[in-house]
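SEQUENCE, STRUCTURE TOKENS:
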Amino acid sequence: MTGRPNSPVPDLRVSAPETARLAATVLLAVMMCSASWIFGWPDWVARGLIAVGLTLVAVAVLMALQTRLRLRARAMATDLLTGFIEKDASPSFVADDDGIIHARNAAAARRFADAEKETLAGTLRAVLANPSAVLFRLQSRARVEGAAQEDVITRRGHVRMAVHQMHGGSFLWRVEDIAERSSTGRSAESIPIPMMTIGRTGAVLFMNEAARALIGGRIKSLDRLFVDLPVRSGQINTMTTANGPIQALVVENTRTQGRNELYFLETDETENSGSGTNFGDLPVPFLKVAPTGEVLSANKLALGLLGTANCKDVKLGQLMEGLGRPMSDWLRDTADGLAPNKSEFLRLSRSDKEVFVQVTLSRAVEDGVTVLIAVLNDATELKTLEAQFVQSQKMQAIGQLAGGVAHDFNNLLTAISGHCDLLLLRHDQGDQDYGDLIQIHENANRAAALVSQLLAFSRKQTLLPEVLDLRDTLSDLTHLLNRLVGEKVTLTLSHDPVMRSIRADKRQLEQVLMNLVVNARDAMPQGGEIRIETEVVSLDRPIERNRATVPAGDWVTVRVQDEGVGIDPDKIQKVFEPFYTTKRTGEGTGLGLSTAYGIVKQTGGYIFVDSIKGSGTEFTLYFPVYKALPGAAKAAAPKVEATVPKHGEGVVLLVEDEAPVRAFASRALRLRGYTVLEAESAEDALRTLEDPGLNVDVFVTDVVMPGMDGPSWVREALKTRPDTRVVFVSGYAEGAFGESEPNVPNSVFLAKPFSLNQLTETVHDQLN
């Protein structure tokens, strides 16, 4: 028994049917055991009857135990009800794993008095269409998670089913009614705008009073209301009402659990019609526009989005721009029904900030006059993401172009400077051609520096990182910086008293600082002060700025501040773009800051800019603090500079697809005493190595070549010649090859353009 309906305390007595079944089982067992003596049956029959009787006795014992366990479960339910759910205002049940109700509180007895059953599924059938499925789903989750809940839409409204697993295998169920609420937290009945809530299948779950008044009663599904489905949000739809078809502007608002809200605005009504619908209170930005472009009215959300107090005597073309064709043509085509209901992305003409809107125009008729309804959606974030994606693609394309151009130029410069080195070996300072050769050599080096700047922009330059103290670096650079800024500008340095080291390329870091200082100088034509400050900062949490995230940790910051004219807010995000400059024609190329950005990013740092128009600009650089690896040497042994050309003996396999570079490299190596085997491709090199009697000491190979690249053929060759040394050369930087990274044992990297001595010394070091 589950207890009396009007009392939360269940009946703990054993039911009469249970007592009768137990007594009958015991009586039958006694009769079986005594029958053998009463009737004198044979022994085998008597033994069989005794066995059956003992079995029945065992069954009776099990029945008694089961009854006792059930009584204990009901006793536990009684304690639970007394201490927890007895006073609960929501219906609550205690049921076992099979759904049999052990106890229920007073609220459950009142709510389900007419549908009281022994099982929970039978009791809830008056509320749920398919209670077994809901109960099984929730009970399965409760076994795993300990508790579960689900909101169910019923004929009477929304119901929240909750279940908790209790000790002993029982479950506590709670049924709670949920009042229908709108997304704003107030009752939907109080909204003056006609609205309804729609389920996944198109069933109408709720209609407010304004919707029932407009339609003429309650409906059960959308196909009874709309002539054409699906509903076109933000457009005019034909609705069937009790008074006949009407034209209404419909806005759909998506909510959770597969439910949507529909808002209606009858287009042939005035703003304050008898139905109480107020155009200004609509939850979506709307504009009412004449076919000639005049804005007739705008609701509150539209005015807030447009950033204006009113739109009186204003045309739509004055509020937004960027259509790509005359605004009047778009409006006229829509009013004539010639243009499809296609959304356009436009930029609002606001001076305070940049805002993009998605505008959907629809044609409507008011008192026989054609008007246009414009639905606005804020698309600023979408357009920003689109602009960022386009910008990243543009930067990537320009970076690839710059890297490719730099690679080809490095090959040319290697051949020019290399053959110049060969000529200088045959001319001394007294020769009349010596000065011309020196000029060629110096200009080739200047061209190499320009190419290095291109590689820095594309982040494919060759860096030679070393452990630096920024105080020492700036101290060495101060004399040059003072010469750059001139007499009108004062340069001030300020250092953190406890400075930490960083690991960077000193030459490239100096280039970054010089670019920033020169830009600061140019921003102060009347003079001023440039401050360079260094500081060690510890970030407890990541910093997010300008789509970049600086991780938590220790960083060394460098700030370059000026008192110049500043940068306009709409231009500050473009300063790192290549070829973009705020200077006049002829005063800048627009590569300085983009190069600085590439160097800082390749070093593992970050660079940010802050500026106030008319007050100055500040660039902030973040560099990670250098942390020495455990067991690393405290100081590297100084490299002994070569004073005389090094000569050596050995066989060098030179693989280079550029004929001028291959010719220079082979002559340079032969001049130093090496035997050189030449190959113009990786395939030729592998065919040369097919001779087992050929001994090769060093592979000198280009990395990027037509066909098989350098690392690929070297790995293949090292399978049979594992002790051979390798020198990789390339016009790209080391680390810029992606999947072709030359991660090969006993290998070194030599960047182009290289000189005669650099090539021969690298080969000599590999052999020795």
In short: The chain is about 35% helix and 25% strand. Residues 1-14, 180-187, 269-277, 632-645 have pLDDT under 50 and may be disordered.
